[in-house]
Amino acid sequence: MKLYTYFRSSAAYRARIALNLKGLPCDMVPVHLTRDGGQQHKPEYHAINPQERVPALVLSSGDVLTQSLAMIEYLDEIAPEPPFLPADALARAKVRAIAQIVACDIHPLNNLISLQYLKRTLKHEQAEIDAWYHHWVIEGFKALEAMIGPAPYACGAHVTLADICLIPQVFNARRLKVPLDAFPKIVAVETACLKLPAFDRARPENQPDAE
Ligand SMILES: N[C@@H](CCC(=O)N[C@@H](CS)C(=O)NCC(=O)O)C(=O)O
What we know:
This protein is α+β, with helices and mostly antiparallel strands. It contains nine helices and four strands. α1 runs antiparallel to α7 and α4 packs antiparallel against α6 (126-147). The longest helix has 22 residues, at 89-110. Residues 9-11, 33, 38, 40, 53-55, 67-69, 103, 111-113 line the site of glutathione.
């Protein structure tokens, strides 16, 4: 398999964690999201993912999967161990709720393309854009702080899809200097996850394209 990735992309970070947890070998192909006007917009990459975003996962069959949650679910289905979702339906819904706060409510408002639109098209000042970013992370983290637990991971004793989505978002929040003092449970989950080799190897700073 081949993963089109960018070291700082939190959606690609999710996919890297998932691949590592399943122990599936995968070549990393960097797509630089800001160099040359964004390599994701080049015709070569457009042909792989018409949405011009990372990650994209090319399977050994040649099929291409896009959208990190779709590819993570696919990996969970083809390689069931360790499972990313609990066996119990109620517990599964709770895991998905946490994952979706990150992937559907926080990340789309704060990803590169949204922030670039605020700056380049709507001509907002950088301070306003930073305030926008902080606002949506803090709103989401307030809910997550109340929802996660019991320790050590986001939903108890086993790593789940919730952790796979949460840890990259925390990385992103730190990079944009969001204060995390009000979120001790989130920070504790981050500490627990980053002790695991699958998470550690997926970290942005441990990628071949890290800057
Ligand atoms: N919902 C998508 C989000 C993918 C996404 O937005 N990726 C960002 C990086 S985190 C991207 O490629 N942005 C390209 C751009 O900003 O032009 C997923 O989960 O895969």
